[in-house]
Amino acid sequence: MFGFRDIFIIQAIVQHGGFRAASDATGVAQSAISRRVRHLEDRMKITIFERDGRGVRLTAVGRRLLEEADTLITQRDRILEELTQNIMAGVVRLGVAETLSHTVLPLMLTELRRRHPLLRFEISVDTSEQMARMLMADQLDVVMLLRDQAPREATVTPLPPVSLGWFVSAAHFTIPQPARVEDIADLPIVTFPKGSLPHRQVEALLSPLRRQAAAVHGSASLATMLLLVDRGFGIGTIPHDLVAGWPQMKLQELHVATEARLPDLEFVIGYLPDRNEKIGREVTSAALASH
Description:
Elements: H1 4-16, H2 19-26, H3 30-44, E1 49-52, E2 55-58, H4 60-84, E3 90-96, H5 98-101, H6 104-115, E4 119-125, H7 128-136, E5 142-146, E6 155-158, E7 164-168, H8 181-185, E8 189-191, H9 197-206, E9 216-218, H10 222-230, E10 235-239, H11 240-244, E11 252-253, E12 267-271, H12 273-289
Parallel strand pairs: 3-4, 3-5, 8-9, 8-10
Antiparallel strand pairs: 1-2, 5-12, 6-12, 7-10, 7-11
Helix pairs in contact: 1-2, 1-4, 6-12
């Protein structure tokens, strides 16, 4: 509908007090200035200037147009500055496993905000499998997920391992300690969602001791896992850092025999270098600095 050149012409007319003065100041022929304003008014179906024997002045619509145009020019100048001075700005689509959303994520985002206050974040908390698909479909820019789910095409950096423990509500279960695999196998288990690496590890640990598979319940929500264990639904395989952050749950860690211990969860932060290398490297740096 209108361009920056139109805005500059209107500003010159207002600043210098008329079409002729604007022509003298800008070096643009008065006829060309009049023609540009008239065409702009015709296109937008508005009257920008009132003309009388004493000169010209902005109409109410013209004043509104000039006010909004000033905002556009400010935005244009900001964008040019950010692009030419290599300032990081805009939206980062970040996918994160829930395990890390309670631990690494808050500190990482705080560090990124300190470094790049113009960045904004859209955060998706999902399973590692789903985040890997979203990364490949260009629906996420950076992901924090289990190492075994990271796409081969992604550049990945290991994050510090997350240790798991067996946790129980002492008010609901009495279990001998150190608990052996057979002590745990007969109990309802709450763990990560079916198909995830921790779920497969728990089933592999417990099921060989039984004629039928152990009762392993999966949840994609760690908060739900905590509540189920706290209310006595079962015993849970939960990250130590998460339990430490919810002291109100009063969960007790089981001391287990060596063969019943679970391996640490190995997470990575990843991005596709052909699309998001710059922001991917910066998010990775902030994640590592937050530990």
